[in-house]
Amino acid sequence: MSDDYSNSKKITFGLALIPIVFLILSLFVAIQIYGADPHIPLVLSTVVAAAISIKAGYKWNEIEEGMVDSIKMSMQAVLILMIIGMLIGTWILSGVVPTMIYYGLQILSPGIFLIATTILSTIVALSTGSSWTTAGTVGIALIGIGEGLGIPLPIVAGAIISGAYAGDKMSPLSDTTNLAPAMAGSNIFDHIRHMLYTTGPSYVIALILYGIIGMRYSGAESNVDTINVILEGLSQQFTISPLLFIAPLIVIALVVFKIPAIPGLIGGVFVGGILAVIFQGANLGDIIEAAHYGFESTSGIESVDELLSGGGLDGMMWTVSLILAAMSFGGVMEKTGMLYAIAEKILSFANSTGSLVLSTILTAIGINLVAGDQYLSIVIPGRMYKDIYRERGLHPKNLSRVLEDSGTLTSPLVPWNTCGSFMYQTLGVHPFAFAPFAFVNLLNPLISIFYGFTGLTMEKLDENQDSEKVA
User: Fold this and answer.
1) Is 378:179 a contact under the CB 8 Å cutoff?
2) Which residues contact 360 (CB under 8 A, 6 or more apart)?
3) Domains in the chain, number
4) Is residue 110, in this structure, part of any structural domain at all?
5) Distances (CA, A) of 328 to 69, 75, 297, 324, 334
6) What is the mean pLDDT of each run of 10 residues along the chain (471 residues)?
7) Strand (E) positions, 93-234?
8) 56 in a structural domain
9) What is the pLDDT of residues 129-139, one digit of tens each?
10) Which residues lie below 8 Å from residue 96, measured CB to CB, with a gap of 6+?
11) Assigned domain for 324 exists
């Protein structure tokens, strides 16, 4: 356990559970009974956590500092979220997204669509190191193509998420792929090679499952008329041209050449604006409107208008407010040591390698649920379990792999997590709906647990290897 928390005011496991139980109950009542959003339950849970912290002896300025520090951790994600909103708006206005949908509907057949979606999402995520960029660019086009082909959107979104996160976690450009080994004391290339043992099998199984599901839709002749209606609606409202593919290619190239995500995505917004003028005859006012409030399709064809109405900076504010509420709650829970009190209790049952891996995975998933951010789900268990893995003779790359298998991959499955809320806002499919079909994300933690209990691929630490050499 981190020294930062061993010397702080101790909050017992029982007290630490109160905000968690309150959050679970309030989320259930709000969402399931009243159909409300998760924002207010998160705010109220923050109040409960703060009240318990004050009772335990914490000052308000300490609690507020924890909230602000936690929000600071998410600010890059918030900025990226807002920029992607602008990018989506300008890319629809410019015809980039309609063009991707138009050609995709003509090239891809229902039978191979889910496999192609997973592989394409993986390639883009590997190239950019970002699941968010993948979802915000090719992801929204693939959603449109899937709808045109008559494939249920939760299945399409699941395939996008599977591919995007498989590519993200295996990319040396990814922030989490760099963060996990840094927390565990491994190095990035050992980490990536070690992840092949879990990502490889889960990816192959996922492709097989998507192939089986795709076979159910391979004879969907009845969708031809629907596809033709969508194609006609797209061509009437937009100038369709393969030259518009330059926009996603430029964004991918910028990230591949190590331009940071924020300026790279801003570049994509500017490219979208320029292409809107050239191909769609838009003026500056149209571009500003689309970037700020999103694009509103007026083709008169319901399926097309529903598909192409969205995006914009304003359209992301629901998600931004959710992230701020979730990070405030997570900040109080971390600052006052409540997360550590709960994790410490879990750790007391970890007597074997298998139970240690299981404890790590449960901790990471729990932090994704409670703290609402994938970075915390990597940082906190990484700091907690680093020394324990060494003491048990396990190489640090085992820990870094487990952190990614659980913390990174389960984050988009939680609606109030920064990743889950982003995917919901971008793809238009609720995480609870696509979660059963995000096969890579579901299988990776299970395979990791299997390796923990069987000892397969759990590499031992060389007794002559000191910690500095490993890190």
Assistant:
1) yes
2) 381, 385, 399, 402, 403, 406
3) 1
4) yes
5) 9, 12, 36, 6, 10
6) 52 90 86 82 93 94 92 81 87 89 80 92 81 85 87 95 94 79 82 93 97 82 66 89 90 76 87 96 96 89 78 86 83 87 80 91 88 79 83 92 94 91 90 96 96 93 55 40
7) none
8) no
9) 789 878 887 88
10) 244, 245, 247, 248, 272, 275
11) no
Cα distance between residue 253 and residue 140, in whole Å: 19
Residue-wise pLDDT tens digits, 145-200: 888 888 999 999 999 999 999 999 988 767 788 888 887 888 888 898 999 999 99
Does the residue 286 lie in any domain? yes
Find the farthest-apart pair of alpha carbons in the chain and give their distance in angstroms, rounded. Answer: 71
Inter-CA distances, 199 with 144, 204, 237, 258, Å: 27, 9, 42, 24
Domain that holds residue 379: 73-317+337-471
Q: Which residue has the tokens 């995917």?
A: 423
CA distance 171 to 130: 8
The residues, any chain, with a CB within 8 Å of residue 428's CB and separated by 6 or more, are 143, 153, 310
Burial class (CB in 10 A: 0-12, 13-18, 19+), 305: middle
